Amino acid sequence: xxxxxxxxxxxxxxxxxxxxxxxxxxxxxxxxxxxxxxxxxxxxxxxxxxxxxxxxxxxxxxxxxxxxxxxxxxxxxxxxxxxxxxxxxxxxxxxxxxxxxxxxxxxxxxxxxxxxxxxxxxxxxxxxxxxxxxxxxxxxxxxxxxxxxxxxxxxxxxxxxxxxxxxxxxxxxxxxxxxxxxxxxxxxxxxxxxxxxxxxxxxxxxxxxxxxxxxxxxxxxxxxxxxxxxxxxxxxxxxxxxxxxxxxxxxxxxxxxxxxxxxxxxxxxxxxxxxxxxxxxxxxxxxxxxxxxxxxxxxxxxxxxxxxxxxxxxxxxxxxxxxxxxxxxxxxxxxxxxxxxx
Length: 342
Known about the structure:
The protein is α/β, with parallel strands linked by helices and 342 residues long. 40% of the residues lie in helices and 20% in strands. Helix 7 (168-181) runs parallel beside helix 9 (213-229) and helix 9 packs across helix 10 (260-279).
């Protein structure tokens, strides 16, 4: 298992403010870099990672490859020195903008043995990128992705749901384009309206309407299934709840839920169960599902969300029978956790 020591560098290297972004609010960090404190934090975090797990240092929050070259060198040298100091095979990851990748930057990344680069893509529709004030276009995403892959650096793409001027059709097209790029990993984030952003102003003026939670779950589930079935490992769904990222703090509107990723996986399981019940013309009051204990929460849903769905819509109760087999059995139809995505 890979575990990460994260270094947040909010807004460093960002040439403009995207309408949805306030990294200080999201990360809870300011832009000042204290290298001594950064090293101490990394050592503290990695000391908690067991030897059997893969340790990783990740530079997140800003556009790492767009900051001053000297700062990049200091951060990457610090990470490399910690590999030696801690005598561990520590991976290095960073996030950046698609328009901040070129051959010279790739050479620097290779020099310091960077393992993974995540691009904040958000959309591959140029109109959506323009209205989100991203400052780059879709062609730059394709070019940056190609350079990273050609250098044998692992590629990650971050995609957002509910951006200004986006539609389901545009999002579906973005999903297909992401699949064509063939990144190794992906992150899925629904757009939240954060305090002190341009999007908050647009929201309060009625120019932007935040996406509803159920729609965000449906679209995220669709995207997750498409990516995973195409060999793209989705490593995150939804922003992590923090002291700031909560409705009673800096989230003004949008599909925020502290267990958003769990809700998406619950929806995928619910769809699979519903598909089988309809195909089998199930007409009884109770359906028995045999399952290994690790799948039970996904079947029943967060706060019994799935259980209540079937009870309310079909008058069907779900009864779980524990199984030692690593499978799920519904009416004799057996499948694995992975095949739920099919």
